[in-house]
Design brief:
- By secondary structure, the protein is mainly beta.
- The chain has a single domain, classed as Jelly Rolls.
- Helix content is about 10%, strand content about 45%.
- The chain has one helix at about 130-145, and strands at about 1-10, 15-20, 30-40, 50-55, 75-80, 90-95, 105-110, 115-130.
- The strands form two sheets. It has a five-stranded antiparallel β-sheet, with no helix packed on it. Strands 1-8-3 form a three-stranded antiparallel β-sheet, with no helix packed on it.
- The longest helix is centred in the C-terminal third of the chain and has 14 residues, at about 130-145.
Length: about 150
């Protein structure tokens, strides 16, 4: 089964924002993996904008640095556009991992223009986990919280 989540994440004057998508269950036997990730500014024709949205398995401060060595990083999306679309057309890069997780996910957004609103759309494939798989996912999540 595919579940979709969409929302608007608004950065503050410093260009930072975080949000949580609640996925945890009492027994942990429901797992998820990302199958689609898309982003677009609330008003893409209004300003020149560069934004980075990242998805983590643990609460993380927003940053514009993307580090694939971070085991808590599940996926990221980069958006750029210039007010003059004829000179610099919009550009989007999306990368996500094939990791199965069963806990809440944490979204961060960092924008170079400060107070910006970014829409996101995430599709997650819902997977039934055995007790062993659920335990492995929980332990992996706990290990990455250090």
């Amino acid at each position: 089964m595919i579940k979709s989540y969409r929302g608007l994440i608004t950065t503050d004057a410093g260009g930072d924002s975080t949000s949580i998508i609640n996925l945890h269950t009492k027994d942990g036997k429901t797992g998820y993996k990302i199958v689609k990730l898309k982003i677009i500014p609330k008003d893409p024709t209004d300003t020149t904008n560069e934004s980075v949205l990242q998805i983590f398995t643990v609460p993380t401060a927003s940053t514009d640095e993307i580090n694939f060595d971070n085991p808590t990083l599940l996926g990221c999306a980069y958006w750029s556009n210039h007010l003059s679309g004829t000179i610099y057309p919009e550009d989007t890069v999306v990368i996500f991992d094939n990791t199965i997780f069963n806990q809440d996910i944490h979204l961060t957004c960092k924008s170079d223009t400060g107070d910006t609103s970014m829409n996101y759309y995430i599709e997650l494939e819902q997977i039934s986990l055995t007790e062993d798989q659920a335990l492995v996912a929980i332990v992996k999540n706990l290990r990455n919280k250090q």
